[in-house]
Design brief:
alpha+beta, 4 domains, 573 residues, globular, Glycosyltransferase, 5-stranded mixed sheet, 14 helices
Length: 573
């Protein structure tokens, strides 16, 4: 049935294509003659990028060019129409996507035109004098008669070039700004360009590192989610990270979290550093997995860390713009590609970034070999590895990520000597020739993390291994304020319990603590200020709660309830 539907879609696409290769139904049916007149706002090139990626996937699966051929014809048209040469359009898409698609296409075809067009779209973006001494988006808007002071609903101010990451060339940008998904797709493409083209602008790699650091250190939630501002579904000021709507924001878009993983995976192709793989794992288990219910029927675009009366913790059956559900399914289908890498710089080293039961096939010398890992990660920190080769000698090293949060870890058997490079322990080939089976055991005991002081949030979040936890009214039925007045003590301890949920049949580790209290907010009055009290004389609502129950953040909104949930709880002094 699926194959039949795909064949029908491919036939329709082939028949719909214009003679010159153009393929965008909106401008072939609805707005005739308006091709490439609003690159900033219409998703003409974005859609072309997804069609290119679909063609590559179709070619890989079905071993024919039925979809790839029309896409190559479309790309040939784009190569003629876009660029800096006379008669070409010196523009670029408002929503990046075609850039990374073109680079994937180049990896398949090795056609220099595909690399050249991708490079142009990435490096021309933000050129203040792109055409006639004017920024291309300003020139384009003026040409179509747009008023100079127009404010689109998702801008917040006129001339919001930052929304599109087009306020400056990427190599000059100091902070990550604008729509978070666009930013991730752009940086993913830039990282892929660095990987594929050694002659690319060296400043591009510096910009990727700089913008990554700004994102992770100043604009990322403890769940690995990004994007505090709902209006433009993107980044706010540094350290502006409210947990929910009634605190001032929090969007944490699903596609953006997937974009974080995509960017990390691309960087890991040329820089094996756990600062990237740690975040990749954090986003996967929290900001990404929370986006789909465990029966696969309900989804979320925004993934707030705290519920409110305006935005209770719940998922929807579908969306008018349903990008996130499909993106989650695509990611899960490709998850094996995030687990291992072998880089061009060190092709004789297998890097293990994620601990997921799987088997990796590679070549040891001229012969096929496998590296197998088995684990119950993230609930159990023990990972068992088995290396199988046809030759008695192993010709590859294996690099295992030691998470930055891990305070204790152990290898069994332990090599007499080993190197650690950027958070990866290197198991040499000669040692692996003797020890084909080995285990890594990482302590995943619960711990508390807090946001940066500049966020002005004196809160604590509970994390176990890579999994962030939250409280939910299903397990704490006394809550009536979305846990806003709940206090968590920094020295609290946790009891762990493996639970198989009766509703979903999912198994996870639940946590319980008695280091908890609650503010008696009914007796706290602001006039407009509140009298300063010593910590030991805080107004506490004694006897209301004696324990607090936590579940994994990704698991929230799966069991009914009233939609009260929260990650960060007020610190109890």
């Amino acid at each position: 049935m699926v194959d039949t539907a795909i064949k029908e879609l491919v036939r329709m696409i082939r028949e719909a294509q214009a003679h010159d290769g153009y393929l965008s139904i909106h401008f072939m049916v609805v707005e005739l003659g308006q091709r490439f007149t609003n690159l900033r706002d219409f998703h003409e090139l974005y859609n072309a990028g997804h069609l290119i990626e679909a063609a590559l996937a179709h070619n890989y699966l079905y071993k024919n060019d039925d979809l790839l051929d029309p896409m190559l014809k479309y790309v040939e048209l784009l190569c003629k129409r876009f660029g800096r040469k006379k008669g070409q359009i010196p523009g670029y898409p408002g929503h990046p996507e075609i850039e990374l698609a073109l680079l994937r296409l180049y990896h398949r075809t090795r056609n220099p035109k595909h690399l050249e067009l991708a490079t142009f779209f990435i490096t021309e973006r933000g050129n203040p004098a792109g055409i006639g001494g004017s920024h291309f988006y300003r020139y384009e808007a003026k040409k179509r008669g747009e008023a100079p002071h127009v404010i689109l609903p998702y801008w917040g101010q006129p001339d919001a070039l930052w929304y599109y990451q087009a306020h400056k060339p990427i190599v000059e940008q100091e902070t990550i700004e604008g729509h978070s998904v666009r930013a991730m797709y752009l940086l993913t493409a830039a990282a892929d360009l660095v990987r594929l083209d050694p002659t690319s602008d060296g400043r591009l790699k510096d910009a990727i590192y700089r913008l990554w650091a700004n994102m992770v250190e100043c604009k990322m939630y403890v769940t690995g989610g990004i994007g505090a501002i709902k209006q433009w579904q993107g980044f706010g000021l540094d350290y502006f990270l409210p947990q929910g709507t009634d605190e001032g924001g929090c969007y944490s878009d699903t596609c953006a979290a997937i974009g974080v993983m995509m960017l990390a995976e691309r960087i890991l192709q040329f820089d094996v550093d756990r600062r990237f793989s740690d975040v990749m794992e954090l986003s996967l288990y929290n900001a990404v997995l929370t986006a789909m219910s465990h029966d696969g029927t309900r989804f979320s675009n925004a993934n707030q860390l705290a519920s409110s009366d305006q935005d209770p913790s719940k998922r929807a059956e579908w969306f008018p713009c349903a990008c996130c559900p499909l993106n989650v399914l695509r990611l899960l289908g490709q998850i094996g590609g995030y687990v291992y890498t072998q880089t061009a710089e060190k092709p004789h080293r297998i890097n293990v970034h994620l601990y997921i039961s799987s088997t990796y096939e590679f070549r040891s010398g001229a012969q096929l070999a496998t590296l197998c890992q088995r684990s119950q990660w993230p609930w159990d920190g023990k990972v068992d590895f088995t290396l199988q080769t046809q030759s008695p000698l192993v010709t590859v090293d294996v690099a295992l990520r030691i998470p930055g949060w891990a305070t204790e870890w152990k290898l069994d058997p332990a090599p007499p000597t080993y190197a650690v490079e950027k958070g990866y322990i290197i198991l040499p080939a000669d040692w692996l020739s003797t020890y084909r089976s080995f285990s890594l055991n990482v302590d995943i005991s619960p711990r508390l993390v807090a946001p940066h002081p500049y966020t002005n949030q004196d809160t604590l979040a509970v994390v176990r291994g890579p999994v962030v936890y939250c409280v939910e009214d299903v397990d704490n039925p006394w809550v009536d304020d979305h846990f806003k007045s709940t206090l968590l003590h920094p020295s609290c301890s946790f009891v762990e319990k493996t639970v198989t949920d009766a509703t979903t049949r999912d198994t996870y580790v639940a946590l319980t603590t008695d280091g908890v209290s609650k503010l008696d907010v009914k007796h706290i009055h602001a006039c407009p200020g509140v009298e300063v009290r010593e910590p030991e004389t805080q107004i506490l609502d004694k006897g209301v709660i004696t324990e607090l129950n936590f579940v994994p953040y990704y698991f929230k909104a799966n069991r009914g309830g009233r939609g009260h949930a929260r990650v960060g709880l007020r610190r109890w002094y």
